[in-house]
Write a sequence for this structure.
């Protein structure tokens, strides 16, 4: 079973920075994409940033220019550098890893890491 683990969440003041990391272990398929999504209380889960094979990184509109997704040093790891954080960035951030869309069942999520932006 694929294990997806996020780390790096916490409390940060507005205007501050934070970096999240994600590692997918025991992956037995060809990874097509890895990305970050977030869900704030009472809101649906939304795309934050996505890296997919053969495509440029994709960002949610609200984080463009502030967040950067990158590959980690180890296989099947990604990072999310978050700068100029705002209170509205407060959410649980989830990492996702998936195969090509032709295999929709190969789609795995971590349990999430909480980011709180507050004074």
């Amino acid at each position: 079973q694929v294990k997806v683990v996020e780390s790096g969440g916490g409390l940060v003041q507005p205007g501050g920075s934070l970096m999240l990391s994600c590692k997918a272990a025991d992956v037995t398929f060809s990874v097509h994409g890895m990305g970050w999504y977030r869900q704030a209380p009472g809101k649906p889960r939304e795309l934050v940033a996505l890296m997919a094979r053969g495509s440029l990184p994709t960002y949610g509109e609200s984080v463009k220019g502030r967040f950067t997704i990158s590959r980690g040093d180890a296989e099947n790891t990604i990072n999310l550098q978050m700068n100029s954080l705002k209170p509205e960035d407060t959410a649980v951030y989830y990492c996702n890893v998936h195969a090509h869309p032709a295999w929709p069942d190969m789609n795995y999520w971590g349990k999430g890491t909480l980011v709180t932006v507050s004074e």
Notes: Residues 47 and 83 are 17 Å apart (CA to CA). The first strand starts at residue 3 and ends at 7.
